[in-house]
Amino acid sequence: MIFPKIKVLHSHGWQYIPNLNEVELTEEFKGRPILTTTADMRDVEAAAELCPTKAISAQPFTLDLGRCLFCGECALRAPQNIQFTNDYKIGSASREALVIKPGDKRVEFCPDQVREVIYKMFGRALKLRQVSAAGDASVEMELNASGNVNFDFGRYGVEFVASPRHADGVVITGPISQNMAEALEICYQSIPEPKLVIVCGSEACSGGLFSESKAINREFLNKYKVELWLP
Ligand code: SF4
Question: In a mutational test of the pocket of ligand 1, which residue from 32, 69, 85 has the highest number of ligand atoms less than 8 Å from its CB?
């Protein structure tokens, strides 16, 4: 019977978000932090000490979004100095721009740092191959969600594809383990030129919790230009 199904569909209503630029996120969502210096910086030193990924430096005072897990512990320890906003526009073409300093009001995305050929070739559609290089499925779930009915990034012409030979670029998640380094290289070499590299999540940006592990091999990121760093 089709009618009960139509009834269910009707009760769901419209699930997609018509304009992603107008989305209001809840206050609980942790995005770009604001850093404030105070006369007594002992709380910042304590927050730096407890940060599991060493994302905070007390001297000079900075917070590296490429290392941050957004656990929020530092903001609880040093509420006068670190507050998280719900600004989610924190991707950048430059790794350095992910390091937040006191007074910073946004994460710079400088379009000039993206190669001309990328605009020219992929301005209207972008096919991506995703490689989970020892990821823990958290970022991979977020990437899945970006294609779901709510966010529907296919409306911008962005899609994941099954084969690197059909892709315009690679999205890397995970800290890049030694075991996955060769697979990542093979995938990259299989993508036709011109191609781009996107790293997604703190583990991919910096190694995250595993940055000091002997089991990771991040040579790939030294060899090829990264077009987009997404904390
Ligand atoms: S929110 Fe980020 S910077 Fe703060 S303690 Fe957690 S991982 Fe470290």
Answer: 69
